[in-house]
Amino acid sequence: MTPTETAARGRAQQTADRPPLPVKLVIAGGFGVGKTTTVGSISEIAPLTTEAAITEVAAGVDDLSHTPRKTTTTVAMDFGCITIDPTLKLYLFGTPGQERFGFMWDDLVEGALGGLVIVDTRRLDDCYAAVDYFEHKQIPFVVAVNAFDGKVEHDLDQVRWALDVADQVPLVTFDARRRGSVRDALLAVLELALERAEG
Amino acid sequence: MTAGDTQADGDAVSGLAADPVGRAPAVRPFLVTAGRVASTRAGTPMPLETQVVSTAAGIVGMERLAFERRDIVALCRQPQSLAEVAARLRLHLNVVRVLAEDLESTGDLSVYVPRSEAANDLSILRRVIDGLRTIPDFRETTP
Ligand SMILES: Nc1nc2c(ncn2[C@@H]2O[C@H](COP(=O)(O)OP(=O)(O)OP(=O)(O)O)[C@@H](O)[C@H]2O)c(=O)[nH]1
Ligand SMILES: [Mg+2]
Fold this sequence. Notes:
The structure holds 2 protein chains of 2 kinds.
Chain A: E1 21-29, H1 35-42, E2 48-61, E3 68-85, E4 88-94, E5 103-104, H2 106-109, E6 114-119, H3 128-137, E7 141-146, H4 156-163, E8 171-174, H5 179-198
Parallel strand pairs in A: 1-4, 1-6, 6-7, 7-8
Antiparallel strand pairs in A: 2-3, 2-5, 3-4
Chain B: H1 28-32, E1 51-54, H2 56-60, H3 67-75, E2 80-81, H4 82-89, H5 93-105, E3 109-112, H6 122-133
Helix pairs in contact in B: 3-5, 4-5
């Protein structure tokens, strides 16, 4: 098997329709920050919702086994897609808003090109979990302040200070309802990913 | 590697996974999959964007399949992701993972697991960037 070969595994036969290579970005953020709106503004399909399992590592340990307590929660996840060309398709997965720490989104995030962490300046702390997660996983991410009604409550320096994100993390404002604005926010993520990959 | 690559991984993967981490709390998924949970490949479940497409044999032999399996083969005449299959058939993602592997082992479905190295592939990143840049500010079709 050469690396340039696309092949189905096992005994399954290929049909004429060879699927595109799928790549993905993760759209994260707290409750109601505009994740679904963002996906819907640019996706070529109306956002779909599926149930995904996320594992939460609870603080503290199980009294009896002294192992970290893990619980699995099923969450609704929105997603959409953009066909880049017949051989390449970009998926956008909106991860559920969770303020709590410790969620393992690995199942959703594995292999992602990058992340967009959406922030509502009225509730800044809602995005800490996502920021921490991407930092920890070393996934390139951009913090995008959703300008509800065209205005941002704080300037970007204040937001950066409040979030305590590293200087190299790009911070942008955008409007989740505007397609061109969402496109530019996603481009910021991909350009960062490219910069990182170029080393 | 060139664009359009998907990973081919030859070994048959058992649907019987020991690791219950991906397990969802709902009861119904376990009835559909006879109690099995999504199997893992090198410890990670198949990504959500994994592409699945029905084989010619699967489409011809669809009538012998029952319920969800038949629905999946019918839907996947058009290649799509596991996430889309789950959403459109209102099945739990982990159920779709298990059933997709079953259908693959019976030759009814082709499963294309993407390489995770795509995230570091410069040519892929550049193509996504170039493609996104062509998206206009507003949708061309006005409602
Ligand atoms: N005015 C204004 N409203 C917005 C904007 N973005 C989102 N909204 C509205 O805010 C609400 C929440 O947006 P969603 O896109 O559903 O947010 P979400 O992050 O998907 O929410 P959850 O999935 O519930 O966490 C909706 O009523 C949107 O119409 C914006 O930029 N401006
Ligand atoms: Mg939402």
